[in-house]
Amino acid sequence: MAVLDHKLWRDLLHLRGQMMAIVLVMACGVATFVMSLSTLDALERTRSSYYAAYRFADVFATLRRAPEHVGRRIAALPGVRAVETRIRLAATLEVKGYTDPVRGQILSYPEEGRPVLNDLYLREGRLLEPGRVDEVLLIDGFADAHGLGPADTLVAVIHGRRQVLRVVGIVLSPEFVYQAAPGALFPDFERFGTLWMGRRGLAAAGGLEGAFNEVTLALYAGSRPEDVIDRLDRILAPYGGLGAYPREDQTSHFYLSQEMEQLGLMATMLPAIFLGVAAFLLNVVLNRLISTQREQIAILKAFGYDNLRVGWHYVKMVLVVAAIGVAAGTAMGTWFGQGLSAMYQAFYRFPYLDYVLPVRVVALALLVTGGAAVLGTLHAVRSAVRLPPAEAMRPEPPRIYRESLVERLGLKRWMDQPSRMVVRNLERRPVKALLSILGMAFACSIVIMGRFFSGAFEYMVDVQYGLAQREDLVVTFAEPASRAALHELAGLPGVRYVQPFRSVPVRLRHGHRTYRTALQGVAAEGDLQRLLDLDLRPVALPPEGLVLTEHLGRILGVRPGDCLMVEVLEGARPTRSVCVAGLVQQYIGLGAYVEIGALNRLLREGDVLSGAFLEVDPAYERGLYRDLQHRPRVAGVEIQRRAIEDLYDTMGEQILVFAFFITFFAGAIAFGVVYNSARIALSERGRELASLRVLGFRRGEVAFILLGELAVLTLVSLPVGFALGWGLCRLLVLRFQMDIMRIPMVVQPDLFALAAAVVIGSAVLSGLLVRRRLHRLDLVSVLKTRE
Amino acid sequence: MVSDRDRTRAPGPVFRARGLTKIYPMGEVQVQALRGIDLDLYEGELVVLLGASGSGKSTLLNILGGLDTATEGAVWYREQDLTRATDRELTEYRREHVGFVFQFYNLIPSLTACENVAVVTEIARDPMAPEEALALVGLHERVDHFPAQLSGGEQQRVAIARAIAKRPAVLLCDEPTGALDSATGIVVLEALSRVNRELGTTTALITHNAGIADLADRVVRLSDGRIVEVYENRQKKPASALSW
Q1: What pLDDT does residue A617 have?
Q2: Nearest residue to A28 via CA among A319, A287, A273, A285
Q3: Enclosing domain of residue A710
């Protein structure tokens, strides 16, 4: 077998151009696979070890105020393993040298020992010392954004009282892997910070001595969180409980899970497509290789090599290529995976990232790639070993051709001989042509899919902030306020228009399905915050009844006309049956809306509001922003424009990096497919083309016959690729129905243009490379064969 | 090797080769295929280049046809110096003036007989109709057949029709009957001599088969890269009278 192995290496060397194109495609597929799965693995591994080591709680509950002994009642609930009561206060922070006001939250830290649940990871400095009321621990994202470290100070305004705080340590918490402010979709490390302060000091600042306003629970394995939550809610109801929620609904955990789900999707779909195309390429190349080796196979068989040995020879060849592809892809994927993980780590704050290349991922990549390659080759190998030696040793007879359909349709008289050669060749081997078209179409579709995200993302932002949420500022009051507050806001300099809103936390229940969200009471025909129907036209809110985001309607299984239970999770906590008046389109968040008057009636409250949307004169915006931040009754002010910028900074970056990889890989696939098609065509038809050159055809004229076929295939592949790309995007959209956002099914026309450009560009490049070979065609030796 | 009698022949040589040498580098060994060939070919004559395998006859034909270039020496087609021609000029030369016939036909399988001829007539300046060319080789009945539907002899006659359809000045045939049985070979040779006779195309035919030599006006015998003998056929025989 040693001689056959020599032959194997020489064949590989001889076909190196095509083999390199295949390795490239395979490596890209494996790289996507390894990159995604290893990053997913790293995130999952890190998350679970971090959660376990730092005792991340299973159930969370916020309330107005409960005496400390209530904690003992909670601890006695069946299924509860550990309880930690604590205090959380909102604050406004001032950082030296930073002019914008900053929202903050301060959590209590036990006076003695470490937290029972949700322990902190100390990155720098030290933990708090008992009795020092001015010491705080600062969360890392915020500290990094402002360059704060141990020994720095900052000012916190808690309940209107300014306090100078000294940072002693920089920490991370399993509760805040995703560090977004409450109500915000994306982290804003500069304008939102979390601090930990000694329990006693914080209790004094918040008037909560001997009491708590938040409780977190760890459960025994096997106990049902729903049961515990039910009992917990009953205990906390008299203390202003806002409804307990399980870990799945905890903001940081929720976003992290969604991100991992998205990554998991990417880790399955894309590599499948890439590997499919790679297998197809291998199939075609090997088929071709084996048909050129007919005589060699015949001689081997004549000498007594059996089918198995000859077949194994070719399978080995494929496996060599697959192994190179997997090795290169694994190296590339590990590299990209580390980069991607680092990007995630900047966004999701883990104290460490446990990135190891999981053996099973590489094994799986090898299995999938090798399997795809061998499967793709099997057909070709089978036809090789089945050849009877005597038949194989005869030169191949001329192939049977006939007039093509295009000619029979009467177009013949306008076609010159080279054109007829092109169409007949295409028609004679329709499966091959179809496979080439499919390969290029897939490449085209991946470009569309990769770039789809950025376009759809922009569209989503445009709709959300251009059509639906058109306010400049959102002001939220600390407590529901009367109409007078609205007039006060309207009277501020630079305010052009105000629109009130009322927001209450609710649990919506329809049958056994429930969803926690904020029920928003808005003006029926406000000009700033508008609701859009499913065709994105602004609609007026009906005077009665609930309007749900279409996706929320689907989660709850309700349609207009159905009624559901609204459990209000604050105040008197009434439960009411409300009917769904309509569904609206909203790509970001899952809102439920009701006319503000109707909401107040529902809550049996007077004419009150939680805050207001403001349209302001841009010249006054900053002044207003600062002024409002310092008003004691204002809990928060959001600049809408900044929300959009944050969205682009965070989500946009991830999407663009992803899109860049995908476009690169898609370009590689397109090139691999086209180049191989052209090279195969050249080797199959070299003799024919050399004959034409001998007959006096110019290089350009000969190139036309070969590249004309390629051009036809390329052009036909484009619409197929567009359709496939659209379908893939559709598939993605269906799978990307996440709670935080839903990617709209919008494929911008320029995407098709880009995809076409990538494919055509690859085709032109391949064409040029093949043309160079065409120019070097040895006329004499081609005609001299079989002498 | 050029006799006085040849020089007086009107209207002057179509080809003039002087001191043609061809050396192929084969790895580290150099193979000398031609060792100084002087040869003139005249208007309208049918010349048979006779020689054993490796005698250099194909190399000579390829150089005359503009498919290859000489290592040393010079060759003129009428006034054109082929030794100094660029690749582009050689392409134009082949396109305008030369018709080729090969041992293995080299037809385009995806084109019919007629279209295989048309592939050349479409790019030629003053071609005959493809049907006319096919009629000349006795294939007017098979114009719409694809190569796969034709016998070897028929395929070779299509190749001849394709070669002559553009009315080339010279027709170069490399073992045109090499892959055929003798009966079929004779039909092919008949077609060739008819073209030579009726169109007056200067024809050079390579063979290792001495039996074919009787067809020629002149026979050039090569051995080991040199011309060893040139003679005129006193009794030129028709193809039908040949046998081997």
Answers
A1: 92
A2: A273
A3: 426-467+644-787
